[in-house]
Amino acid sequence: MIHEYDAVIIGAGGAGLYAALEASKKSKTAVLSKLYPVRSHTGAAQGGISAALGNVEEDKPEWHAYDTVKGGDYLVDQDAALVLSEEAVQAVYDLENRGLPFNRTPEGKIDQRRFGGHTRNFGEAAVRRACYAADRTGHTILQTLYQQCIKNNVSFYDEFQVLDVIIDGNRCGGVVAIEIATGEIHTFKAKAVMFATGGFGRMFKITSNAYANTGDGPAVLARRGIPLEDMEFFQFHPTGISGMGILITEGVRGEGGILRNSKGERFMEVYAPTLLDLAPRDMVARAITTEVLEGRGILGNKKIDDYVYLDATGLGKELLESKLPDITDFCKTYLGIDPAEKPIPVQPTAHYGMGGIPTDVHGRVIIDDKNTACEGLYAAGECACVSIHGANRLGTNSLLDLVVFGRRAGIHIASYVKDADLIAVPDDADRYARDWIEGLTCKGKAGEAGRIAEEMKVSMMQNVGIYRNEKNMGKAVSKIKELREEYKGLGVSDKTKNFNTELLELIELKNLLDTAFITAESAKNRKESRGAHSREDYPDRNDDEWLKHTLATLDGDEVKIGYKTVDISRFEPKPRVY
Amino acid sequence: MNITLKIQRYNPETDDAPYFKEYSVDVEPTARVLDALMQVKEYQDNTIAFRKSCAHGVCGSDAMRINGKEGLACKTLVQSVTESDGDTILIEPLRNFPVQRDLIVDQTALFVKYKEIKPFLINDEPVKEKERLQSQEERMQFDDSINCILCSSCYSACPVVGEGKGFLGPAAIVQAFRFISDTRDKGFEARLPILDKPDGVWPCENHFECTKQCPRSILVTKRINQTKNMIKKYHKEKAED
Fold first, then answer.
1. What is the model's pTM?
2. What share of chain B is helix, strand, coil (3-state, %, to 5)?
């Protein structure tokens, strides 16, 4: 089936919904989502959304920008960080005005709490900057934006999985997607296409990410020759529930929770004397891993699956119930413990891709080192790389990223489509997608996808995890190459059309293999340690050679590496201590 | 431990009627029912269809009936629905919705009702401050109602919805309560025609099944009764005017 729209947005999380709200005001817009929109992973974000409102203590957008840049180990584009921190304030008020149920101060204003890496006066001490709705902030943002889309009659195609993008020269003309309920392949012709498909954490064995986070947008674009930026920077959140990866918000530490090793020591005193447990996530994740590898994990076996304790027993039942109710519930459900009485066993969990589809501050996709934009092609949210997170994202800046850059992309799309035409899309624009699906349904061998996915996840976790080195990353690259080759022979056992979830999972597996391949190759290429990319064989940051973004282009069975400059116009790069 | 999953299967493309199929699987007692389902799907029978996403009880994708009770497969541990090795867990799709395939049901009816109650803040007055002020107590009045993830468990559990007479239903009323009890909202009268019609809030008979099965611990029945009381109070005040 063929459809025509001014704008098509892929993904219905925070970025996609905000863009849809803006774009649909002035243009015929459709949102395609592989899930019902309210199931999107934005809803799993817990702790907060930062903005220098100054509701509980003095704060300034410039301090927020500085923290973002330093938190990202100076790989952040500083002009973009200023856009983020300055527009944050109005973005949060807009959400509140549209009904978002923030927790309140005694004066009735939006309440704010501490979060990792957010400081006052350029690093002096932790500041209360994170606006929150208990530990359900992402859920309330997703709900509020979806509700506004209902109010404004936005058109949705629920349970449509994107397969391909139509690009002619330097111009985007639409997308191809499969309707999960029927197996039908649809072509959406559009003047503007925006990808807001979220993360790709499912390439790792232990992750906080949803099953749906399979890098669909980055993979689809990479296969069409669009480079991906800074894919080597993947954040491991310090506090996932041990063995399961379920996220325990940094808000627990923001409210006073403390990390302890087997001796009961508050080990962050050693690693970050000023910010302690509220140091940025890459540092805390490394600290936990070091404690474990040196035998001070709770089991003391020096093995990577050992864990430490997150001690929230000092917070009191009342605070836990009112400000961290979901965390309390998760601990009771999955661990059988009450966090008011017993410490929570935690270990780092693969959480967030700082890299992704390169964009400018209007969400336009950038295709080379000269910042050339592909006309009509946009991206925002976790699948994109503006870059405001650099080498390590600060907590609460992801929700902020969604609303600030989702909105900006939507506004730009609305003005772009006014003067743009649909490009001539050939009748066989869906050829690649049809061939792919036909290969999977008619020819390939079934029953191997589970094993291939498992081998990818284990290899990425072991070799491209928190600590990395040349040898291990080389192993991961070889393994992923081998698995990509094996994928070519795969197919489904289920030959039916409706809700063929086996087919859906094979589509997602290809997307994960391609994004994992680019991640591993980009990581192996970067010979320094910066932010979340921590190499045992190159332990120091090397600004002389490596203060530059990676642009990795997928070329069949190879990844070609290029670079792009970093905007450092505001804050001079300095050693990063907390 | 070894368990048997007895799963209701139905693919309208190939099957005349639903049937049950059993799968034997080894899992930790602390595994989620979703983990057991995934193990079957990935390594025994790829054709089983169910929805899933977050895997920790916040997205609402994998609501189903587990041993006859509604729940999220990712928030139900195997040990909580079994007693000993060799036990069987019965897995069925939600009731009161058309089955599209296996454990996947068509939830359109719920979203239609959700949209009917105008699930968005209604307030056209300009904002005087940067934010609309609200006291902590006012905010807590609707606290549990913001937890709803529209998983549809309550529609499956509700005997009145099961009568098929068009009852507005638990989740939609909770969402209406979320707004009409928010001090910032001015949409009570706009929502009244939907809530106060015969198949609005009134068919609820206080069976409490929605409250018992809600995976987000929302006091659903209480919120429905509070909504009824708000409507009664409104009529009383109108009559006195």
1. 0.97
2. 35, 15, 50
